[in-house]
Design a protein that fits this description.
alpha/beta, Immunoglobulin-like, 503 residues, homodimer
Chain lengths: 503, 503
């Protein structure tokens, strides 16, 4: 094995850390290669071994993709039940990650996320379920432009089609009409188009929260009630093709409880399969659909194959109780969308959605965005992307800035007494008591979450202090312990031991 | 017995139905008449007998009050353990009720209220806990003026003082300072002043929801941890003095669960005592204090001595679940007050309070108002009355008008398909499908709950119809089956079988 490295040293392919190595092989095209050909490769760096599966890409082409996670020379050898594909060996060099590549997102310290290189990551997600399905290049480019100009760094998107989609379509399986759909054969064109969009998202720094199943088919395409073998084959194909993209998350199902063909045990099984097959252990969750105030119907997120809580609920104040229930990050992917749909999930005002973001984040959760203005040119952003019309996007950019200016673990910092972000919502007190220890000197700012203004209050506060407020809704208070750099200036007298005034 | 009537026929005192008959007697003033003298009277009309207790009013004066509930000649005879007060007999004539007097409010058809004469009553309550305690006549008059100009027809008010009140005060018991308070002797002056204000409220058509206990004393006056005998004596005195006012309701305790000296069993006992002693069976409830999302900590309103559910909770959407849980009227007496207090219970915006009223009422509940602008001249309305500064009062008057224009049982009418009030809250759909039966012809209006506008949509709708909406928050739809009087006009073509437009 040593020889391989020495022999190929000068011409080894280079792949950056968390980049994608891809091996292309030729093999049989007869029969159904998707189901009949088994292919995988064993990648090894020192004692570390990773064995991703390969996939059939049509026309006798097979590929094995691999995302290396540590720099150095990786060697590989393929295995297959097909002799043409078996025993191919080689190596490549994994180099350091380039700028902007921080690796996959992982859970950090129970309730937070971070990229694998330790860089902070706070999801500000949006939702465009089927933006890659219509085959409209111009619309897809427009969606990417909208995303590029937005604060969003995660997008929820589906692979399977919905009932109301009409051909011509790009579908996961071959066939354009329900009666001709072959659920045993994948459509490489669909995936190639999808992958091009995944590349676009990667370039924009946007995580792709891929929704593998959903209940919106109602038997039309027959993809919501496939047999166990087809479900498993689909999941493994997705992992083989898409798992090497570092920014992929697995959302096993959207509104899983609305799919009457599958039980909770089915979802357990498919989640476990995903956990077992994914060499990279991408983030993994499942998203509930049931109605408000039935939070007991949330999936049991304490199950070990779940990495984070992907919640649909319209009451962000419950974030605290979900944190207390399960020590995993809270992502409220659906909290109702800004828009004017006739449906309850898609017609809240921008003011209300911004409010829910602040409420959820100040309680230690992450909230997801969506837009559904059904009377606009491109109809619902959540379905097909296009333009964003809502009032909340710029406010969410402001919120993101505020959150990024604060400590990574903002609730932890509050407990430690170094930082606090208090959100008043639709409450409008004219003063607020900050009850910090006697010796604590701190700065206070009033944040107008809707008008996107930060107003620092003059001077330094110390100990228990009364802070006067403008007495209108949608304000927050940011309290920060005076830092060393502040203290570099001649320390001002703590002027606010008995109360400050908002300018 | 016949003789009494004949003999006194020409000079019998007249008291209107649900008015107040009062018998004044002289008796002993030595000792402690409040505790030592027992006095009651047996009032009889034909076979109907009612036996209210009397009370000591100081200076050797004793009174027995009685509210007759049916017209005719009522005879009475007193009983007492004191010979001077025992055996007084007489009669009076109960006449028909005068205009504006509809009797006490009763529960009607499980979830509704009505006056005893059958006149509709929908509580639009407000809260001025201690407006009669400060001894400031000018402020009390101002409070009455504010009430007269408001839509409120119920007021929550306390009898016992709070910890932070300073003398000079009018207190229920004798003594002006905690150390001199004698909890075995009532203060007739306090009650006489209170009664004058009860008369004022009666004149204004405002029900007096009297809060007998509360937890805001914290041992200061010693009235939140009295012994069982003193509690009972206090309740019986209140019933004897105040029960004959037809507009009195008994709210046994405010935020009862914040009083750590008493258990749920104590409240059961005191509620049962009230039920046993009150000859008129005024409305009876108890009001919880515990925090949001612990709705399980609400008092068990299914207990038979409870007439209606007096709730503190900030989520009006739960109205539906409370209705499902217990078939008694829902009165959300505290849903957070409009204002700018630093406390969460008293600082929501007017917009938010109006929203909560609409949300609660459209779900079949009644919501209570309060105001707490702490930087205004008279400080919090909820404590001491005075002026109203908020933005919501005129909107609540508008809501009251809308509700009064609708059927008494608006949820029942919805089920019957004759009326529907749909509130969209912070949702802003641009259309809404009304799914009425094919043969139903109906009128639709768009209601702007904040701007207080009712916009009728042109024409008649029929069957399942799509109604276009302006797509902004805080709208409601009012749908009314076309009535006979509408039909008197030449019937217009049903123009909206396929959709209407909001002007």
């Amino acid at each position: 094995m040593e020889d391989v490295g020495r022999h190929m040293k000068l011409k080894l392919q280079e792949v950056e850390r968390w980049g994608r190595f891809e091996l292309t092989l030729s093999g049989p095209s007869e029969g159904n290669p998707f189901r009949e050909v088994r292919l995988s490769a064993r990648f090894q760096y020192r004692n570390r071994i990773v064995e991703p599966e390969g996939f059939y890409d049509g026309d006798g082409t097979y590929r094995i993709r691999f995302m290396p996670d540590c720099p150095g020379v990786w060697r590989y050898v393929t295995s297959s039940n097909c002799s043409e594909l078996d025993g191919h060996a080689g190596a490549f060099v994994c180099t350091e990650a380039q700028e902007g590549n921080h690796g996959p997102v992982r859970v950090k310290e129970r309730y937070l996320f971070a990229y694998e290189d330790g860089t902070r990551y706070m999801p500000f997600g949006t939702t465009c379920y089927h933006w890659t399905h219509g085959g409209d290049e111009r619309l897809e480019e427009q969606t990417l432009e909208s995303l590029a100009a937005s604060p969003f760094n995660k997008i929820r998107m589906c692979l399977l089609p919905t009932q109301d989609m009409k051909p011509p379509l790009q579908l996961v399986f071959t066939g354009e009409y329900p009666e001709e759909l072959d659920r045993t054969r994948f459509n490489p064109d669909f995936f190639r188009r999808l992958e091009r969009r995944l590349e676009d998202l990667l370039r924009l720094g946007i995580e792709a929260d891929l929704v593998l199943f959903h209940p919106y088919d109602k038997g039309f395409w027959g993809v919501d009630n496939m047999d166990a073998e087809s479900d498993a084959s689909y999941i493994r194909y997705c992992i083989a093709r898409l798992g090497a993209y570092r920014h992929v998350w697995w959302s096993l199902c959207n509104e899983y409880d609305f799919n009457k063909f599958k039980t909770a045990a089915d979802w357990d099984r498919l989640l476990q399969l995903t956990q077992r097959c994914d060499p990279y252990q991408h983030l993994r969750s499942i998203h509930n659909g049931t109605k408000m105030y039935k939070s007991s119907s949330l999936y049991d997120f304490s199950k070990p194959w779940i990495t984070h809580q992907s919640i649909q609920h319209w009451d962000a104040e419950l974030t605290t109780s979900w944190r207390n229930a399960v020590a995993k990050p809270i992502v409220i992917d659906e909290i109702s969308y800004e828009g004017n749909s006739s449906r309850r999930w898609g017609n809240i005002s921008g003011e209300e959605l911004v409010h829910r973001f602040w409420e959820g984040m100040s309680r230690g959760g992450f909230v997801g965005h969506g837009e559904s203005f059904i009377d606009k040119e491109t109809r619902a952003w959540i379905s097909s992307g296009g333009k964003l019309y809502g009032e909340c996007v710029e406010r969410l950019a402001f919120l993101r800035r505020i959150m990024e200016e604060g400590p990574e673990d903002w609730l932890g910092a509050r407990s430690a007494g170094t930082y606090s972000l208090l959100y008043f919502g639709r409450r409008q007190p004219v003063f607020h008591w900050i009850d910090w220890p006697e010796q604590a000197a701190y700065r206070v700012e009033v944040i107008d979450t809707w008008n996107m203004q930060v107003t620092p209050l003059a001077g330094v506060f110390q100990g228990r202090s009364k802070v006067e407020l403008p007495g209108r809704p949608y304000l927050a208070l940011r309290v920060r312990l005076e830092t060393e750099s502040d203290a570099g200036h001649p320390r001002e007298q703590a002027v606010h031991a008995e109360g400050g005034r908002c300018g």
